[in-house]
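Complex 275.
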Amino acid sequence: MIADSHMHTSFSTDSETPMEEMVQRAISLGLTDICFTDHYDKDFGLDFQQEGAKEAFQLDTEPYLRSIERMKQKYEGKIEVRAGVELGLQLHLKEWLSNYVNQYPFDFVIGSMHLLDGKDPAVSGGSFPRDNQKELLRRYFAATAENLDNFHDFQSLGHMDYLSRYLDGEAGAYSYSEYSAEIDAILKRLIYYGVALEVNTGGYRSRRALPNPKKEVLRRYRELGGELITIGADGHTPKQIAYGFDRISELLLRCGYTYYAVYRQKKPEFMNLVL
Ligand SMILES: [Zn+2]
Ligand SMILES: [Zn+2]
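Predicted structure with zinc ion bound:
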């Protein structure tokens, strides 16, 4: 794998890494192509009662894009640097999201569901009820399909089973068959709307040590005719760049994929998966 299409820098609330350190590490790993996808979760703190939450995960877009442009020029010939963003999906943001993605010259936009009931499990894991986690996951998948119908002017759906990373035992280690209706609803919408499914290897760093989504779901998407995938390690530090890339090609080849997509100016270019 030579391209990592999901990574964060100090422009994101949850990273302190200067952009240039990410570029240098990617070059030293032998990557030839990276895409920065810093967070913009508008109205992140709307229902989330924590100090500072309202300002969290907001992106100062213009300085961010200028910084990417500088990296592009400085490292031209050594690595391709693309400009992306990871947008938090919420139903009431439809109009704002539509305007935002067209306001700036992004190469690649990831749409991600970080919030359920206005809360991000990564930030407020403890405040989700522990008693009916299977129902939470079911609602999370249903909300994802609903958000896709609401807004789908982006290139890839980020870490589709994100919530499962933060759930306990059985609920977190969910099986596709238990949620087949909800998951199929998401996968069919992706195919219908021409949105890629992201394979997020950042999941290998979580306690479950699985990609997001898990293998069963990747198989199912392929079975339904889905073939548009993007790959990203969701690194927030230089060490996390390309994390898990050593195992993901084999898994994807076994699931029936032969290539993955890299987006430039929102158009996919296809790269072969090789062992
Ligand atoms: Zn995310
Ligand atoms: Zn991310």
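The two ends are 9 Å apart (CA to CA).
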